[in-house]
């Protein structure tokens, strides 16, 4: 190759490399301008993984819609997802990575209440919003101290509201033979505290309080004790699979007290573990039964085929609406700064049209729950599908009963 051609070849190679560097810099600049949200929850390891996957689908759908409408503050939203494998240590690691390394402005999730409790200090210390789209333990959204700024908010039916409904049902049914049966996870222990507090408030003294490990497959020992004491109404707080196995254990004993369950009974893992006939014995509460409104049906058409089961759609809705509320806070604050977003969420000036409902000032300095007992519906499995349920006891319940 002569000198002239060699020079031309080197110049061409130089300009190609230069163009590549410029292109990479442009991409990096665009990415730096994007607003990052994080999701940290179980996507693969426990019965709650299907709810985590459903929530991510809802969040991604909301981001697509927001970006199609111009984004937030003239910038696009993106989602960084981390699977915590239902392990507290992994969930803590994910939170630190998302906030410190990925520089997310808010984190949604987790699926497991125990994991949220494990890293509860992190968002508050780093002043980053934690939007609870799945986990339901009542203590998650409480401030670390009475006067502390609180960076936790929730769009999910929290445990205390559910427990109030179940205890009110038991009281109005005029039974005095109540038993409490819970798993030993953070979710189960939190639910037990709510049930015990509300039972005391309603002058109810449970005849039996029994526990089981989330990995247990046979609960006949605990149930035999309840049967011997004459318990005729059992309030059960557990994840889907073990709760279904409680019913299987009842079948072994031919012992079928009234079965009042936490919202995890809506999980397809509960239905699969219990089977069609036994699953229908559980009475529980959730914010929606099935897609009902036009906007809910439209979102279900987009996401339904990707869900583990139609019952998981509730978590997609909660993920979608959580993202809308975060976007509204950024717009109002004109900032992605954590303290400014927190202040905006505490006093949203404009109602947010969500998929679940319209959120009109859902939060305040002290109120962290976007869903209230008024949003709850009584539900049962009927022929393999979730169906709204009512009976004379439910018809007798008042707003005061549900808000204790």
From TrEMBL:
UniProt-listed GO biological process terms: amino acid transport
Name of the protein in question: Branched-chain amino acid ABC transporter substrate-binding protein
Pfam family name, one: Peripla_BP_6
Membrane-traversing stretches: none
Taxonomic superkingdom: Bacteria
Signal sequence range: 1-32
Originating organism: Rhodoferax sediminis
Family recorded in the similarity comment: Belongs to the leucine-binding protein family.
């Amino acid at each position: 190759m002569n000198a002239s051609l060699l020079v031309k070849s080197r110049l061409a190679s130089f300009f190609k490399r230069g163009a590549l560097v410029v292109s990479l810099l442009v991409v990096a600049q665009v990415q730096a301008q994007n607003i990052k949200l994080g999701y940290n929850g179980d996507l693969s390891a426990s019965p709650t993984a299907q709810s985590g996957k459903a929530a991510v689908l809802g969040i991604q759908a909301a981001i697509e819609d927001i970006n199609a409408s111009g984004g937030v503050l003239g910038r696009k939203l993106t989602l960084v997802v981390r699977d915590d494998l239902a392990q507290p240590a992994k969930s803590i690691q994910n939170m630190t990575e998302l906030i410190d390394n990925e520089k997310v402005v808010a984190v949604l999730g987790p699926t497991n209440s125990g994991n949220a409790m494990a890293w509860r200090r992190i968002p508050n210390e780093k002043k980053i919003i934690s939007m609870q789209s799945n986990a339901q333990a009542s203590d998650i959204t409480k401030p670390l101290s009475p006067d502390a700024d609180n960076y936790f908010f929730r769009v999910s039916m929290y445990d205390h509201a559910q427990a109030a409904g179940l205890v009110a049902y038991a009281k109005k049914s005029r039974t005095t033979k109540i038993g409490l049966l819970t798993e030993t996870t953070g979710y189960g222990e939190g639910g037990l505290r709510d049930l015990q507090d509300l039972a005391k408030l309603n002058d109810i003294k449970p005849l039996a309080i029994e526990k089981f490990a989330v990995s247990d497959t046979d609960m006949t020992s605990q149930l035999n004790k309840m049967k011997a004491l004459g318990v005729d109404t059992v309030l059960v707080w557990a994840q889907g699979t073990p709760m279904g196995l409680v019913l299987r254990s009842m079948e072994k004993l031919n012992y079928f007290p009234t079965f009042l369950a936490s919202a995890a009974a809506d999980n397809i893992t509960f239905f699969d573990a219990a089977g069609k006939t036994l699953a229908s014995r559980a009475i529980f509460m959730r914010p929606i039964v099935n897609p009902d409104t036009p906007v809910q049906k439209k979102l279900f058409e987009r996401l339904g085929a990707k869900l583990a089961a139609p019952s998981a759609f509730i978590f997609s809705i909660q993920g979608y609406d959580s993202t809308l509320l975060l976007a509204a806070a950024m717009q109002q604050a004109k900032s992605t700064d954590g303290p400014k977003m927190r202040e905006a969420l505490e006093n949203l000036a404009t109602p947010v049209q969500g998929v679940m409902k319209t959120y009109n000032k859902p939060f305040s300095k002290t109120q962290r729950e976007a869903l209230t007992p008024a949003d709850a519906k009584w539900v049962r499995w009927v022929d393999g599908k979730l169906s709204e349920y009512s009976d004379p006891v439910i018809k007798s319940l008042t707003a005061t009963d549900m808000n204790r």
